[in-house]
Protein: Phosphoserine aminotransferase
Amino acid sequence: MKKHNFSAGPCILPEEVLKKASEAVIDFNNDNLSLIEISHRSQPFVDVIEKARSLALELLGLENKGYKALFLQGGASMQFLMVAYNLLNKKAAYLNTGTWSDKAIKEAKLFGELVEVASSKDKNFSYIPKTYEIPTDVDYFHCTSNNTIYGTQMKSFPETSVPMICDMSSDIFSRQMDFSKFDLIYAGAQKNMGPAGTTLVVIKEDILGKVERQIPSMLNYQVFLDKESMFNTPPVFAVYTSMLTLEWLKDLGGIEFIEKVNEKKSALLYSEIDRNPLFKGVAAIEDRSNMNATFTLADKNLQTKFDKMWQEANINGLSGHRSVGGYRASMYNALPLYSVQALVDVMQELERIS
Ligand code: PLP
Structure:
């Protein structure tokens, strides 16, 4: 039986996607050739990347609005520097809500002046700062929509006249919002899309061409836009699997549908964390993430017992990140509600026998 996979990433993907992806590794398109042994310039693969790019825009409601989707390499971490390389002329504003924002800030500092508009470092990033001002003379504002490690999520986004850039690696395609508020969105594939190896970048073309520096081709968004995301050999397997996941999501009913499922899953788990006296939530209640729930045991002496119980219940990937400790249940799009129920059952059983 497949495990209840709460891993934070790489993480669970829909079973039918895994099946189709693995079949394509043996025989793609019934052509007696593997997906990973055909040319990326062949029509069947060009069709795949075009479909993945258009599905991404369609699901985000960004078709015909001046946006293009790219599938790049280097992980979301590469975007920390690529964003700054392409967009930071003099000064940029960053909201610091966790390790990933911190890393984005570190890279951007190599390219210009940084204004950290607010930070939740004072409480180990367990909340989202709400009051801050974004200077109007910055080249852009950068934020992280979901903090995978600490289990916090931005529930609203500031109004600003400057371009808004968002790292949505761990909650893209999971909830409805007005994505046209953002001028550039990036997300590593390995949470809600596919295997590690590609990063989706959705970019409003008119924000480019404003920096004075020379940009190396492999780090230049415009080069990839001009080449329809095929400046060099793309990570074909990661792009194909992402396309399958986006198709799966569209067939289910898109973000509107999956958001409801995600709300049910997180409501089920958070209500147990709050009800069960053996557990405590880590993140501020109003900022809790629907994707990554962080919690601890009220009594650390129960840890060995609890760990044994969830592992025996076929649950995987529940240990918290080393910087937070405790537990983290990641409930990405592909995790079924019954997996969350399986975890809640274990939590209730621990209470019963303790
Ligand atoms: N940003 C966020 C919000 C993440 O959760 C992660 C990884 O978990 C990253 C960036 C880094 O992604 P990558 O490993 O693809 O560079």
Notes: Residues 9, 75-77, 100, 144, 148, 167, 169-170, 188 surround pyridoxal-5'-phosphate (CB under 6 Å). The mean pLDDT is 97. DSSP finds nine helices and 14 strands in the chain. The first strand starts at residue 4 and ends at 5.
